Amino acid sequence: MTLSTWTTAQPAAGLGAADGSRFDASVRHEISQLVDGYKKDAAAYSPATAVLWERIFTSLEGGKLTRPRLVRLGYDAFKPQPRQEQPQHHGAGHRVVLLGCAFELLHTSLLMHDDVIDRDFTRRGRRTLSAQYRDDALAAGQRVPDAEHAGHSAAIIAGDLLLAAAISLALRAGSSLAQAGAIERSFQLAIQNAGAGELEDLLYSLDHSPAKVQDVLRMEELKTASYSFRFPLQTGALLAGASPAEAAALADIGGQLGVAYQLIDDVLGTFGDPSTTGKSVDSDLREGKSTILTALAAEQPEFGESLKLLRTHTATLTSLRSALAAADAEPLARQLAKELCDSALYSARRLDLPEAVSAQLKNFATLILTRGA
User: Fold this and answer.
1) In this structure, is residue 82 part of a structural domain?
2) What's the domain range around 67?
């Protein structure tokens, strides 16, 4: 679920470099203050939970703030001009920061739960929170299975705490506004969609036949594109006072870009360079995940047989990767991603968005399609 589209040096959407840096700094400061508050509160009733919050903060550090920036992009798309500003927009900048932080906490929460589901103890070369508690248990003399269980259990707890904090922030961001209910609904849908996509991903991995292309596209829209692209843009637009129809139109653009991002992520997860992407090229195949690559290749009967052999441990990852290559799965997936980006940009032009917002969406599409190049 990770996104690496922006580097930390790039300014927030629609802003100059100085304003973008200030926005990023405001988000990081707000997250730091929030976690510090939770840590101090926990110290009074549970020192162990105070330590947990300290480790949670380590997991939050260094994030690229993609989702907060998309919240800001959605806001910038529909914010009133200075001469049109109404009283409800005074202090809007802090509301944007709060809403951006809410999505950043949600993202980290979902990553922690995802590590449990995937039984991972590293993410992009770093030890996860699960690994820290696993190692504590090993140092205390626990057996490996028990230590790993302890690590994953701590990650579930941490993810739950972050999820609760994220919901609280989203509610604060919309508090007292006419659109508060719509913002809350949008944020809740982000959570619900992510959960639905994760469940479908899990169930597809248990099936001996790979999911069909349309099923994979729907799953990837739910699991990643919705909470990472669609709803940050939508809630940002709602915060600016956009109509439900306007916010939904921008959200649809985000949904297409988000699915395109995930399609390229699938490609890099099988054919990418781990030293560049930080992603394993074996884990998706080993776990039997249904990706756009397997869905496209499965339209050829011989590939379905190769996948079944892998799942019964009578084939190798190398042979399966070769079968994917022979089916032209990578170029087909890249072409599908390009079509989604082209469609998103066409829709953006029809919305008549501010020039800076349109430029940032175009930049997004370019970065998505050239990732790992």
Assistant:
1) yes
2) 14-177
